Amino acid sequence: MMDPDKNSRICDPSTGTGGFLSVSYEYLLEKYTSTDAIEREPLFDIDGKPLLDNNGNQLENVLYSGDLIDEDARKHIDTDMFHGFDFDATMLRVAAMNLVMHGIKQPDIHYQDTLSQSFIERFPNEAKDGMDIILANPPFKGKLDEEDVCPEVLRKVKTKKTELLFVALIERMLRVGGRSATIVPDGVLFGSSKAHQQLRQLLVDNNQLEAVISLPSGVFKPYAGVSTAILIFTKGGTTDHVWFYDVQADGFSLDDKRAPIKENDLPDLVAQFKARDKAVAETEANDKTQKAFWVSKEDITSNKYDLSINRYKEVVYEEEQYDPPKEILGKLVSLENEILADLKALEEML
């Protein structure tokens, strides 16, 4: 959905093991591989039987060479495309190894608290107006030294809550026209505090808030059951409307096992996201009972910049048909008589 290209500068300010960055590179390889350079290897289990997906199709290992990436772009990818920051040294080692093993020669991975005022001092080209794309799943709760938080971030949103501070930080890190997809807890969307409203107003009035994608509460199990959403916005400009999508299934069960299932809204999410501008233009197609719909800026501002999908989604209630009470009572009496007869039979056996 973010569709990076070979000249993008991509960052994760709370990079962890570097998953967003490594998958971005995989996406780029697929995007810049010619049809003739794609290699496919069918997958088999330990007994030599073909491995099948939920639909019964043969699973394949598809290899992309990235043969359409020129030498200059290759140098940029190896040295200045991927930037990651975290203050967990173990995670950083894993992230660096992850990217190198994917084929990136010199990933820009650093030990750094990006909320700290030292961030802009040490990395001025990354900390402000420096990134084309930011992908992040920042920590929702954690220890925070308020005195060390960058004053410029605090001016955007005065709070101790890391989930709010990180969104403000990301907005500062992006160049004008740069885009972000950030995972936030649902509280960011509807919180009533001054800081919550201040952040949402910043996104809507001073930037182009493109989409709010609601995720089911089990997507991060077994690690966390918190309900989350994805905020997608472009830095600069203003918001005319916001596109919403209600993801109800992501291809895996929503319990701790996270086993594969057939239900998966993600392909439809991507397809509808790419066609959203056309859907917005056709106002008659804006059915708020569907998974995807849009809301005007006027509606959002009149609701104190509330971005929760349940505020705007219309629920259709279907009338339930029940048997008449007398008929239900008759069925209960019949069941009770059967139970008494069975109990009597058991008593005679004893």
From TrEMBL:
Pfam families reported for this sequence: N6_Mtase
UniProt superkingdom: Bacteria
Catalytic class of the enzyme: transferase
EC numbers, comma separated: 2.1.1.72
GO biological process, alphabetically ordered: methylation
GO molecular function ontology, one term from the record: methyltransferase activity
InterPro entries: DNA_Adenine_Mtase (IPR051537), DNA_methylase_A-5 (IPR003356), DNA_methylase_N6_adenine_CS (IPR002052), SAM-dependent_MTases_sf (IPR029063)
Catalytic reactions of this protein: a 2'-deoxyadenosine in DNA + S-adenosyl-L-methionine = an N(6)-methyl-2'-deoxyadenosine in DNA + S-adenosyl-L-homocysteine + H(+)
Gene3D superfamilies: Vaccinia Virus protein VP39
All residue ranges annotated as the DNA methylase adenine-specific domain in the record: 2-320
PROSITE patterns recorded: N6_MTASE
Keywords, ordered alphabetically: Methyltransferase, Restriction system, S-adenosyl-L-methionine, Transferase
Family: Belongs to the N(4)/N(6)-methyltransferase family.
Protein name from the UniProt record: site-specific DNA-methyltransferase (adenine-specific)
Organism listed in the record: Pseudoalteromonas lipolytica
